[in-house]
Specification:
- By secondary structure, this protein is α/β, with parallel strands linked by helices.
- The protein has two domains: 2-168 and 338-351, Glycogen Phosphorylase B (Rossmann fold); 179-325, Rossmann fold (3-Layer(aba) Sandwich), CATH 3.40.50.2000.
- It has 16 helices and 13 strands.
- The protein has a seven-stranded parallel β-sheet, sandwiched between helices. It has a six-stranded parallel β-sheet with strand order 10-9-8-11-12-13.
- Strand 9, helix 11 (235-243) and strand 10 (255-258) form a beta-alpha-beta unit.
- Helix 1 crosses helix 7, helix 1 packs across helix 16 (342-351) and helix 4 (97-108) packs parallel to helix 5.
- Bound molecules: uridine-5'-diphosphate (UDP).
């Protein structure tokens, strides 16, 4: 069996690190196309180095463009490669422009699509990711959902067949790499951080970075928290902070502003912090898995189950400090994201004699 995987953004490297290795171990031949959406050392190369992710077979180097131009250029090059490669499946992850570019091309070439992390919905179509998810799910033949809630979201859109609830591959990634993170990461030493003595913040969604007032309110309120905040800054946030002349917040003694960190360093920061402030999808889940209170700077989330169990709260910047102080630790933390065998299930489905796929 031949699979062509199309990826290009940080969270996809984390997911592929475990899935690609599962493909390899089961004899599935994989070709990886890296679109280049995330391209620099800290946002891309380091994940390939640290996580045993096979080097991409093709690198398209397409980035820093508006959505239409980026997706269009990706599609053009992906089409040539798929026509040459003729894979049995195209594998896409999550909800980025690389996801939708791969899915649209594969669908038009009649190559079946497997979508890992299918069925996520924020129900906010102003989020570019929401459009990418919806379209990809409607084109995919094999929908690999991380949770039962995702399965229900697909049903609401009339998608019943081809859906498999396999658990979340990010759970597999944590279980695979957490020991290595503990053994090799130097991040706590490097920034002189004691466990449980700092908060961790990540911000990169346009709804938080692109409006000067909103971004300023977020940074201002981070400086008001009772402990220092480690803030690995995504390139989009960094660019917007500079563009909006907000760099002075980064020299405030309460903010430890650092470049984006490796996944292994991130696991150490997440598992040792007091609480997490974020607008990331993946980080909300990781906070839950590490049983860290999470405060999500958004109006809604596609990871709704983390809200339902009480470990995650949607907050506005001005309420952040109060929300953290008033947080009550829930008594329960059920295994929302599976037991770390999502990759195994995906491979079993792909190699089974009779796969349930969408017509
Ligand atoms: N991450 C990382 N370094 C960082 C920030 C995040 O390795 O400095 C990891 C994080 O642990 C998670 C993934 O990147 O596995 C989440 O990616 P991101 O927040 O960029 O995207 P989203 O999940 O919102 O799509």
């Amino acid at each position: 069996m031949k699979i062509t995987t199309i990826l290009g953004a940080r969270p996809q490297f984390v997911k592929a690190s475990v899935v690609s290795n599962a493909f390899k171990n089961s004899g599935i031949k994989e070709t990886i196309i890296h679109t280049g959406q995330h391209f620099d050392a800290q946002m891309s190369d380091i994940f390939f180095q640290d996580l045993n992710l096979p080097q991409p077979n093709h690198h398209l180097n397409i980035h820093s463009l508006n959505h239409g131009a980026m997706t269009g250029r990706m599609m053009e090059q992906i089409e040539s490669l798929l026509l040459e490669d003729k894979p049995d499946w195209v594998c896409v992850y999550g909800d980025t422009n690389s996801t939708i570019a791969g899915a649209l091309v594969a669908a038009k070439l009649n190559i079946p699509i497997m979508h890992i992390e299918a069925g996520l919905r924020s129900y906010n179509r102003e989020m570019p990711e929401e459009i990418n998810r919806v379209v990809t799910d409607h084109l995919a033949k094999l929908l690999l959902a991380p949770t039962q809630l995702a399965v229900e979201c697909l049903k609401k859109e009339g998608i019943y067949t081809g859906v498999h609830c396999v658990g979340d591959v990010m759970m597999d990634a944590i279980l695979t790499f957490n020991n290595r993170a503990r053994e090799t990461s130097d991040i706590l030493n490097k920034y002189k951080l004691c466990p449980q003595s700092f908060y961790l913040a990540t911000i990169h969604r346009p709804s938080n970075t692109d409006n000067c007032q909103r971004l300023s309110a977020i940074l201002e309120n981070l400086t008001k928290l009772n402990l220092p905040v480690v803030f690995p800054i995504h390139p989009r946030a960094q660019a917007k902070i500079e563009q909006h002349s907000l760099s002075h917040y980064l020299s405030n003694h309460k903010i430890i502003a650092i470049p984006p960190v490796s996944y292994l360093d991130m696991l150490m920061l997440e598992s040792n912090c007091c609480a997490i402030v974020t607008d990331s999808g993946g980080v909300q889940k990781e906070a839950y898995i590490f049983q860290r209170p999470c405060f999500t700077l958004r109006n809604e989330t596609e990871w709704k189950e983390t809200l339902d169990v009480g470990w995650n709260h949607l907050v506005q910047p001005e309420n952040l400090s109060d929300a953290i102080i008033n947080f009550t630790q829930p008594s329960q933390s059920p295994a929302l994201y599976g037991n770390g065998n999502a990759c195994k299930k995906i491979v079993e489905i792909l190699t089974s004699k009779k796969i349930n796929v969408k017509e």
